[in-house]
Amino acid sequence: WVLQKHILSFFELE
Amino acid sequence: MLELRLVQGSLLKKVLEAIKELVTDANFDCSATGFSLQAMDSSHVALVALLLRSEGFEHYRCDRNLSMGMNLNNVSKMLRCAGNDDIITLKADDGSDTVTFMFESPNQDKIADFEMKLMDIDSEHLGIPEAEYHAIVKMPSAEFARICKDLSSIGDTVVISVTKEGVKFSTRGDIGNANIVCRQNTTVDKPEEATIIEMQEPVSLTFALRYMNSFTKATPLSNTVTISLSSELPVVVEYKVADMGYIRFYLAPKIED
Question: Is the N or C terminus of chain B more exposed, i.e. has fewer CB atoms within 10 Å?
């Protein structure tokens, strides 16, 4: 099972 | 008051063609540093960051920081009306809800202006820290585009693995599987034809090919592409925009769960 990660799980909102 | 004059107007045309598939609406930010954009795709899986530094424009006037919301498909429609050799000038007055694109032919015998409505866009700005990458691959952009296109006819995802042997692009699908290995190659006639692999440690990550193929719309901007990989981070696929800036595409990996 492969999960597509979210970009927001790597970078924080400014 | 905003006035940006770009002699090599074709660069702006190519920039729009590179990002309009990925992002529908975006804010273009104008500051003393330059003309920039940061936007996520609608699924929040990919992010595009554009910078065109102020020094790259023949004339750059930006009295105060300005954020202009635009529909990229509409910008593309406007810019397609500019000739490839045209000089493009962007103009906007303070507080105005429009932006004007002025196109001048190289010998000044044709001058056109296209005014476009701006839009209010709520956008989230992400902080992207400087990072150390496990591997950085620089290769011909056309080769990378070819690989992404070829693999997407076999599978939906690509595994990019960097080892001391080289960089391997792999996919598998219902009809079979495919592996393409590119080795470091610096013995070429032109520097832009080289494949250069800087590896701190081996890395292997899985990505959706649909997004990779979308990034390759930037291929006309640069002969080379740089792919930066780290097991902890989204991949960065970077195309230089002449000597004035870059388009960076960030793509979150797929993780085995």
Answer: C
B206-248: pLDDT as tens digits: 999 999 999 999 999 999 999 999 998 999 999 999 999 999 9
CA distance B257 to chain A (A): 6
Distance of residue A7 Cα from the nearest chain B Cα, in angstroms: 5
Distance CA B70, CA B109 (A): 29
Q: Verify whether the Cβ–Cβ distance B254 to A13 is below 8 Å.
A: no
Q: Tell me if ipTM is over 0.85.
A: yes
Question: Alpha-carbon distance B124 to B215, whole Å?
Answer: 21
- Cβ pair A4:B40 closer than 8 A: no
Are B203 and B161 contacting, i.e. CB atoms less than 8 angstroms apart? yes
Residues B224 and B138: beta-carbon distance below 8 Å = yes
